[in-house]
Amino acid sequence: MSAFLTLWRKELTTYFLSPIAYIVMIFFLVVMGAIFSLLVSVLAEGPAGVTVMNLLFGSPFFWMTMLVLIPLLTMRLFSEEKRSGTIETLMTAPVSDAAVVLAKFAGALSFYIFMWAPTALYIFILYYFSADMAPPDPGPMAGGYLGAILIGMFYLSIGLFCSALTSNQIISAIITFAVMIVLFLTGLLDYVANAEWAQTLSAHLSSYSHMLEFSRGTLDSRPILYYLSGTAAMLFATVKMLEARNWK
């Protein structure tokens, strides 16, 4: 456990010392702030029964941001270690491969959650400006953030695995982006195909539909299990990928 904590602190510190990480965070907050501002103004004149969180997490700009954000956060995790030649030192240290993978994943996830933390101000803004009306329902808010974390975990684990495949950060980011695009488009099959198998597959894999349900405050155990098990599977695959390299 001490080795994991040491590696996790190292990974998290690396993020906060990287200018790219700050650029990514500023880009994320600016885009999310702009989306929130736009949707609040639309909602003020729009139909009743639609929450800001539902519109926020269903916005195409949100998904475009996620598809760009995750590859940038994960592309350096193993690729940079390989490029700089420090991977041999890391993998031959008295620490398990699983601890290394989990520490890098935990570092990326911690920074991802840290980026989301300032958006909690949206909640206070909604409560402040709705003082004369019914207060916003906390269910969709909590569900939206839970969905963002679960989906982010899964996509970060994919990026971690892709980073373990190559020593080139750009290639790692491109592979991660491609895999995420395939998963995202697969989830939209029911919009373009009428076949029953396509609709069933889309219902199970659609991050877009899952996020809409989360942001409505609807908690279904199936998508939660899907993202948790998918994350575990990708982390396991990353460990096996490193073990196959025979560093030790």
Plain-language structure description:
With 248 residues, this protein is an all-alpha fold. It has one domain (2-243). 79% of the residues lie in helices and 0% in strands. The longest helix has 27 residues, at 19-45. It is globular.
Overall body shape: globular
First-last Cα distance: 20 Å
Strand content: under 5%
SSE order:
HHHHHHHHHHHHHH
* Number of strand segments: 0
| Helix share, percent | over 70%
Would you identify the regions where 5 or more consecutive residues have pLDDT less than 50? none
Derived from helix and strand composition plus strand pairing, the structural class reads mainly alpha
> Could you give a short account of the major beta sheet?
none
Kindly give the count of domains. Answer: 1
Which radius of gyration do the C-alpha atoms yield? 19 Å
H/I helix tally: 14
Q: Mean pLDDT score, rounded?
A: 81
Features:
globular, 248 residues, mainly alpha, 14 helices
Topology:
Elements: H1 2-17, H2 19-45, H3 52-58, H4 60-74, H5 79-84, H6 87-91, H7 97-116, H8 121-129, H9 138-163, H10 169-186, H11 189-192, H12 196-205, H13 207-215, H14 221-243
Helix pairs in contact: 1-7, 2-4, 3-13, 4-9, 4-10, 7-9, 7-14, 9-10, 9-13, 9-14
